[in-house]
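FIELD: query
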Amino acid sequence: MTRVSVVIPALNDSVMLAACLRALDRQTRPADEIIVVDNGSTDDTAAVAQARGARVVLEPVRGIFPATAAGFDAAAFDILARLDADSVPPPDWIERVVSAFETDDHLDLLSGPGDFYGSTPLVHWAAEHVYIGGYVWFVGWILGHDILFGSNLALRATAWGRLRLTVHRSMREIHDDLDLTIHVEPDMGVRFDRTLRVGVSARPFESLPGLWRRLSWAFTTLGLNQRERSLLSRRAERRRHERAAVN
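FIELD: result
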């Protein structure tokens, strides 16, 4: 039987975390464990998590990737599902994640988009179609495989075991989902399912400083990895592996 750990990194997000945990309580297929990674909160994030039955892991090194990596390392089960504290998954989210992995032995990493809430329709549209849409197209084209979106992703524990020491897990000002996407191995199956959706807060896109921070982190993540190894060479390696598998 496939078992699922849900990992939620959080920093001073008690109100939104409570909504996320309520959504997880309503799942048609409950999580086998929920891990909230407290990344140094000064509010009642940890208390909210514990009150709803989540296991709290403390990660003092600030940053979304250090917190996410700590949660993945602490997880006990077969599938590691990842949400942000402001993610609101629909009732069948875990059920669909489990079904995807159980019906496809070659699937290692799974992701989907977000339905943005909490701002204007224009901001929601731009966040989904320009920011996320551009990310899906551009990075997918460069690497030759689907991308991962951090507010809505899952991977096999075995995949994390292979990737955990190659990604830049200790760095703060990078996007963990983009870095993880770049480090997907050529033989790993990765799928971006546009129908696997969760609610996601649009708050990072409501101000120019918030938007610029996200863009600067994207450029930093791409530049860091490009300097270490050409992104196009990663694409070429995946293509060689795909051709070898067919032959």
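FIELD: remark
The first helix runs from residue 14 to 25.
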